Amino acid sequence: MSLTSLPLVEISGAPRERGRQYGEQARERIERALTYYAEAFAHSSGLSWEQVVERATRWVEPSRAFAPELVEEMEGIAEGAGVGFLDVLALNARGEIIYDTTFSSMEPDGCTSFALMSEASGDGHVYAGQNWDWRDGVRGTLMVLRVVQPGKPTVIMHVEAGQVGRQGANSAGIALNANGLGGRFDDAVGVPQTLIRRRVLDSDNLNSALEALTKSRAHIASNALVTHREGFAIDLETTPGAVGWMYPTDGQLVHGNHYQAFVPAQLAATYRPTSTDSLFRVPRAEGGLRTVRQSSGTDEARKRIRAAMSDHLGYPESLCTHPDETQPAVKRWATLLSSCVDLTTGDYLIAAGTPCDHEYERVPWNLYDGPHGEVTP
C-alpha cells in the first residue's frame, strides 16, 4: 500500500515480532536513512557513521529502563532490516545526538503544530496536525506506520524509517504533534524523544499520555501538543528540567520552535530562538487557522486548514518551507509533509510534501479501527 509517495506499513504482535515486520517492509528506506545521516553528521561534525554509532551506546540503558518493549521493537527492526541494533538506535536518537557535546551543531527539527477545538473548526470537529519541517534529504525515508499491539491502542504515525515514534494519533482519540525547541542543560543522559513520543501514543487515557511527558527525564528540550477527541488540547514545553504549558485560546492552539509558555531559568539570561522563522510562522498559522471557524462543512474546513498551512511569508523559510537552493543539498530544509487528523471522524489526512502543492489524502485506515480508550459517560 502507498499514499502517493509514502509507503504504508502495518505491523502487529509482540514487540520483537512487530520490529521484524517493520524492518523487513522498510528495509530500503532504513538504508536510505542511514546513508543520509552518515553524510549529514560527517558534514556537521567530521565524524564517521561508525563513530556516531559508537556514541549512540550511551542511550541504550536509559532507553531500556524507560521502555524495554520499544528497545525490543528496535532490536526486531534491526533484524528485519539486516542492520545493527545501534544503527537503529542512532536513527531514534538522532535529535539527542545532534545536541551531544561531542558533536558540532546541527539545527533542530522545525515544525508548526496546531489544534482546533469544535468551536474553532466550523464543522464542530476536533482537529490536530502540523507541518513537519526537517532536512529535505530525508524525504525518501518517510513512511506512515500503523501499529497494532495487544492491550494497547492502535497507533498511526508518520515517521522516518527505523524510528519507533514521532508524530501521530491513536484509537483512544489522543493525538501528538511535536516540535523541536533545541538544546540541553547539563551532561546527564536522558531518554530519546522517539521513545517518549511513542509512550504518549501508546496511552489509552489522557492522564497517562501527559505523565509520559511530565514524568520522564528527556535528554533534550522538545515541545508536545496533545489533543483529545473530546475537545481538549494542551501544549507542553518539556525540558530536562522544568515543564511549561499552555491551553487553547478561543478553541485554537498553535506552537512553533521557540518557547511560548515560558523560558527555562537555565536559558533566561541569554535565550535566543534557534529558529528565527518560528517567530512569524506561529502568528501566520494562527491567522490562517482563524478562518476555519467560518467553514460551512467538513470539506471546506479541511481546505481552509490546508490553505492556512500553505502560507509563504518569508519564503523559502516560511510556514510552508521550500528548499533553499543556495544551501548545500545536505543542509536544505523543507516541509516534508503536512498532517491533519480529524479526531471526530478518525480520518488521518496527509499531504505528502509541501501543502501548497499537495492535497490532503486520507490514509486508508480509520483511527478508530482499534481498541478505544476512555469515553466520558
From TrEMBL:
GO molecular function: acyltransferase activity
InterPro entries: C45_proenzyme-like (IPR047794), Peptidase_C45 (IPR047801), Peptidase_C45_hydrolase (IPR005079)
Pfam family membership, one: AAT
Claim: Ribonucleoprotein is one of the keywords in the record: no
Keyword tags: Acyltransferase, Transferase
Residues covered by the Peptidase C45 hydrolase domain: 123-321
Entry annotated with the keyword Acyltransferase: yes
NCBIfam families recorded: C45_proenzyme
UniProt-recorded name of the protein: Isopenicillin-N N-acyltransferase like protein
Organism expressing this protein natively: Nonomuraea solani
